[in-house]
Amino acid sequence: MSVQGSRDEDLLVRPLGSSSRDGAQIMAELTIPRAHSNDWYDQLAGVQPGYYYPWKSVVGGRNGEDAFIDLVRSHLRPDACVLEVGCGHGDLALELAPYCQQIIAYDRVPAYIDIAQGNMARKNIRNIEFICFDTGADDAVTLPVLDQSVDMIIGRRAPLHWIEDARRVCRPGAVLLQLCPMEEPIPAWSSKLPHKLHYENSGRHTGHGSIQQSVENRLHQAGLTLHSGWSFDVPEIFSDQQEFYRMLTWGLPASEVSSFEDLAPRIKHIYARYGDADGMTLRHCRFLWQAFIKE
What we know:
By secondary structure, the protein is of the alpha/beta class. Helices cover 27% and strands 24% of the residues. The chain has one domain (11-292): Vaccinia Virus protein VP39 (Rossmann fold, 3-Layer(aba) Sandwich). The chain has eight helices and twelve strands. Strand 6, helix 3 and strand 7 (102-107) form a beta-alpha-beta unit. The longest helix is centred in the C-terminal third of the chain and has 15 residues, at 260-274.
């Protein structure tokens, strides 16, 4: 899901240097967007059609994705109006549309909304309104719906700042549900790669700090309370080194990164030193939470 109104600053990183005639290495600074900033999502929209993970890996069971869908479905009813924040190219809204009266789904990236509207038309679904909207365009967060007009707000890998306006737009008894990427360790092999491809600079890395604490702080500031939450931490295995490379370079234009062939010796060394018989294992971490608007 794309991040709306991000306050991240651009990250300065240094690519591999070149040698001058006297053999001295020249390191030129190159500015690239910080992962999951608005600029990063705008760049991603030009690299791939929609928001998705382009690599193939094996993720362990009970990873939070099915639990999120099951929890959302358990709260849906035929007359419900649902707001989805950071909807990306609309897959979740299209999946849930048959189970409620209306879904309003928004994202700030125009290319994502174009894809979502096209898919909705092809599937002949009529109860979704996809909106291109940036909730962070002004100082105060404002969701694109009327006062007390929705029964549920959902987000999958979406930002948290929408919580600020949740009480205004929700009817009494409404439920807030979100599946968030959770903090995870920086792998030991990260420093073996060019700086731009360090794991902490990649789109897959979810950042530092406690996501649960961030959720609770946001809810408290909005006069709300966390009702319940569940943490998921399972292995994600990359058996194919080229898929590992796709993960590391996710969201970066091909012109800005070394080719797989150029990086293959480093990746092979990383697999030999830090991998096992199954390949390279990362942690797939998610936090699922819910809160309620009191009657």
